[in-house]
Specification:
mainly alpha; 160 residues; 73% helix
């Protein structure tokens, strides 16, 4: 993480990997065909992530943020979006004809399998780190805490 809480190392690794794949393939097959291959590989992860986020919104607002739950915003919209994205998922998994382009998304399944194995290993070896994954905010401090949470809070308390 950088000072601005940006995953700079992950962004750099992704840029290097993209260039390492994209440049040689572009010189071999041309830009349009290379884009088609890389987009074919990336289509399935995008659909799966979009589905997972919509389902996570429904679950989070039905369990953890129940007081903030709104039927339209936290159930109907993400539920409808998840249903709509089942159509491209079906087409990716069961294409009309199996060509190289239609088989490329299955590379994403291999990548997903590696991620699942890594998550299982992390969960068994470092459970605290595993449970901290995906958390954007640190645990809230009690309201009676005398220690300010940020410099802005400190300045607000001093100016009162």
């Amino acid at each position: 993480m950088s000072g601005c809480r940006t995953p700079a190392v992950a962004i750099g690794c992704l840029a290097v990997l993209t260039l390492a794949l994209g440049l040689p393939l572009t010189f071999l097959y041309g830009g349009v065909r290379t884009f088609g291959y890389l987009a074919g590989i990336g289509g399935l992860p995008v659909v799966l992530i979009y589905l997972a986020v919509n389902i996570a919104v429904i679950r989070a607002f039905r369990t953890e943020f129940r007081a903030e739950f709104r039927l339209g915003r936290h159930l109907l919209i993400p539920g409808t979006a998840a249903l709509v994205f089942l159509f491209p998922l079906w087409e990716i998994l069961f294409p009309g004809a199996y060509t190289l382009m239609n088989l490329l998304p299955f590379l994403a399944f291999g990548w997903l399998a590696i991620g699942v194995v890594a998550a299982i290993v992390l969960r068994t070896r470092r459970p605290a780190t595993f449970h901290a994954l995906g958390r954007s905010f640190p645990p809230a401090r009690p309201a009676s805490s005398a220690i300010p949470r940020s410099k802005a809070d400190h300045l607000n308390q001093v100016s009162r």
